[in-house]
Automatic annotation (TrEMBL):
It comes from Paenibacillus odorifer. Its EC number is 2.1.1.148. Gene3D superfamilies: 3.30.1360.170. This is FAD-dependent thymidylate synthase. SUPFAM superfamilies: Thymidylate synthase-complementing protein Thy1 (SSF69796). PROSITE patterns: THYX. The lineage of its organism: Bacteria, Bacillati, Bacillota, Bacilli, Bacillales. Transmembrane segments: none annotated. PANTHER family: FLAVIN-DEPENDENT THYMIDYLATE SYNTHASE. Signal peptide: none annotated. InterPro entries: Thymidylate_synthase_ThyX (IPR003669), Thymidylate_synthase_ThyX_sf (IPR036098).
């Protein structure tokens, strides 16, 4: 399984990867001119030690690449991890790259995320961010309908601007932004992915990005089972 559907129209696809748990162990041993050719109990103990003690540089030698299709509100939360990837305390550059599709060059049919009537959440009682319980269905149905009408209005103005010869990079200003699905490639080290997962799998993370984090974990954990078991257990990449 290399693709997982998320939020109906969205998905996460594993494009490529380099390395394994053995890569992590060998990267740590190179200073002693040692190398393993098959993952052993000794290598597993070493990976556990590295994660427990916060020696994270060996985890940056294993790389993963994903294609993600998600609403803009998710993409912009995710993007913070790329911006901050060179600023983890004591770790240096954690190896991340991001390339996103742009409506400057293409005019593919816009797709929007619209919560169903039973998916709207209330504001939290004791926090300025996040969300609370599901609101009453009747109120949710009202806002689903209003969002759909608002989206259709923006879409019609976007299409009219294109038809009148307005360039795509300006016509896109009519598209309602935060629910618009965008597509990007995310290339990141095992350390970077674990840092993302440690924060976005938490119960207080935005639900929509939690769903994408779960998809990332399902795709990457079989490739690096020991590393992720340790990095997500110890939280040493936070």
């Amino acid at each position: 399984m290399t693709t997982i559907k998320v939020l109906n129209e969205g998905y996460v696809r594993l494009v490529d990867h380099m390395g394994s748990d053995l890569t992590v162990a060998n990267a740590a041993r190179v200073s002693y001119a040692k190398q393993s050719f098959e993952l052993s109990d000794r290598d597993i103990k070493l990976i556990k030690f590295l994660a427990r003690e916060g020696h994270t540089s060996p985890f940056r030698h294993a790389i993963t690449q994903f294609e993600v299709y998600a609403p803009l509100m998710v993409a912009r939360q995710w993007w913070k991890y790329v911006v901050g990837s060179a600023h983890y305390e004591g770790t240096g550059d954690s190896l991340e790259a991001w390339n996103e599709s742009s409506r400057r060059y293409i005019t593919e049919e816009p797709v929007f995320y619209q919560p169903a009537a039973g998916e709207w959440r209330s504001k939290p009682e004791n926090s300025k961010q996040g969300s609370g319980d599901i609101i009453a269905w009747e109120l949710g149905e009202k806002y689903t309908r209003e969002l759909q009408e608002y989206t259709e209005l923006g879409l019609s103005k976007y299409e009219a601007a294109l038809a009148d010869g307005i360039c795509a990079e300006q016509a896109r200003l009519f598209l309602p932004a935060y629910g618009l699905f965008v597509r990007w490639y995310w290339t990141a080290s095992v350390q970077s992915v674990a840092h993302f997962l440690n924060q976005r799998l938490e119960h207080d993370a935005q639900k929509e990005i939690q769903e994408y984090a779960k998809a990332i974990l399902s795709l990457i954990e079989p490739l690096f089972p020991v590393s992720f078991d340790q990095l997500l257990t110890t939280g040493s990449v936070d």
